[in-house]
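Bumping with the actual sequence this time:
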Amino acid sequence: MPFGTVSPTTPDCFHYDRHKGESMHTQTDLRHVIYALSDALDLVGIDDINHGKRVGIMAAECMRLYGARSHEINFMFDLGTLHDIGVSSTQTHRNLLREFDWEGSQEHCITGAALLQDFAALSEMAAPVLYHHTRWDKLVEQGVPEPVIWQANLILLADRVDVMTAPYYADSSMLEHASEIREQVQMCSGTYFAPELVKLFLATSKSEAFWLQLETHSIQRYLQDMLLQGPKSHADMSELRQLASIFAHIVDAKSVFTARHSQGVASLSRFLGQRMGVSPAHCDKIEIAGLLHDLGKLRIPDEILDKPGKLDSRERQIINTHSFETYQILRQIKGFEEITPWAAYHHEAPGGSGYPFHLMGETLPLEARILRVADIFQAMVQERPYRAGLTIEEVRDFMLDMAGQGKIDGDVVNAALCDLDETMRVALVV
């Protein structure tokens, strides 16, 4: 059967013997993955995309002056980069950066802590993330353990300093306003911030270097230094899958229209890969690619992603940037050399009409073609607030029509339509 074509009737089941006997040799540093994926969290800021890293730098520098051990400094930097892991809404991010304190600030703390608490590698961060928007005096009243108070309150202090400094990053005028920012922090001593931490911050922020390292061009150098100095932690496939699931949850929570979409695409991609004879190692990787394929959507404003009606040309262009943003995030991770293109090519079409690279034909790996079919199939059968999911007959006709137009791979469609009841069940995994 030629590439990109399908049988017009319900296909017979078939099975490719691809990558037989292949084993998994990916060597991936977990901290490297965490830092790269933290870029996805920063995308929620749209125009301000380094908030988490700046909070991490400020917290780490305070710990360094305090005389903390290297693993404590590394922990606070990592905590800073991930402290907003519960935020996927651009509106929530705007509130966090515009208001010193606001009524809904606790919601993302609760979400973030829940995401972290069951992942062993990051579970120590759950408690400080839960309390990182709770004032110091309230933490003391609640009897929160002292180490957690220290960690959470230092993150709150650095977080609020970044909010006060944000208007001055664009023109690099932080130094002109450093004194007034330090005075505002001093005024919050004993209420929002622990007096000891205020003293530590004031001592750390005396130097010009403290403020200059928060500039965009300095942040990447700081990040590289932390990667070189920090402990190496090899991530096995189970940890990578669990971390990918956390970020899939963040992406899917961004819109009421896409709940569980990434999980469904991941499950369906693995299922189709197994049906087509893709090796177990590549099925593991394609599942992770499915979980992470929409990372770039975190940069799409809520009002565009949640628009129930037809998008205009400008809005469509903005939506179409998301797969390239996914590519930019994942390509930084050593060990993701195959996962990255599979995830990033999920809107590429065999006939070259896709985006953002307009790749054609056999230049698209089978795994990328599988993920594209899984992405479309899952979206079509999933119930959305503005429409019902397609029935079995409707989705069969829809997929056959797309394949006939060269928009999706015919062989993969045949695999999806073989035992369509089971394919539907996998796509709608709960």
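The tokens above came from a reply further down the thread. The domain at 237-427 is CATH 1.10.3210.10 (Hypothetical protein af1432).
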